[in-house]
Description:
3 domains
Amino acid sequence: MKTKLGLLYGGKSAEHRVSLQTALAVIKALDHDKFDIHPIYINEEGRWIKGPQLTGPVEAVKELEFADVASLSPTALAPALFQTESQQDGALDVIFPLLHGPNGEDGTVQGLLELLNLPYVGNGVLASAAGMDKVIMKNIFAQAGLAQVNYVSFIKSEWEKTQEETYSKVEAELGYPCFVKPANLGSSVGISKCRNREELATAFAEAFQFDRKVIVEEGVEAREIEVGVLGNDEPECSVAGEIVPKKDFYDYKAKYEDGNTALIIPADITEEEYQQIKEMAIKAFKALDCSGLVRADFFLTKDGKALINEVNTMPGFTPFSMFPLLWKHTGVEYPQLIERLVQLAKERHDVKQKIKFTF
């Protein structure tokens, strides 16, 4: 019997276009003999639109952007959005949230699916929320004893009142170069590298367009190493990969548009360095109580010390994305990777159904 798979994509987020590319790639990779695919599109205004069941591959993003003629409010979700067109088929078996950034990757949609008691791919509410907020994530990593770069954070209202003091704190505690990032955003949106106070001021203004909170991280001279983590209670790691940007750093355009970055898989690191990164990745996965998947990003210094940078709780599946490439080189092809994620979602849901909710 086929699995009725709901693909949830788009989203009211600066990463809307990234999500569409991810959805397109996943649809092309799915085996239509194993899955009935039901698209659920969230447009940039936050309207939810259920598209017709897909009976074959989709070739272009525009085919996934349904007209806003039969949109539904999230308050009217069940059963309209999460059931098949045929009442005999009933509810969808699994939801795959292919959403990046706020209003999708941050625990909000995961909370909705929990309330509806639907199996879904990927991380739960806590891991998604903590993984989206870089400040909270780094605080948890610090508590877990994971080595990382120095960082400071600020909220917009604080910065607006004390800009000069803010910049002085960054200079005193981190120095230059440093990186300014929106705390709750991914895909390198709104990130700037700063070498002086003028660039720092511009970077703060840019980052605060995307979030009310920013994080500033110390710049380090190091290689960028990533691994994929897959599983629930017993996670496994992929081979390591290295990102070598041809530009100053791995920004949005390099990730999703021009592919102007070298992805070296497997990374040329020692077995000792790999084991260090692998242990830290699994420790980070468990510290956030992750499930399904994460991509864990590290800095590797010249003396072989690994520093965890962040984890991405819903890494992209675009043609330039590292996560599926890492698993391909580990021996798990793209279609099998997606099937494994769906199976992990079912397994986690089955475990939750055994929890006692009465006393």
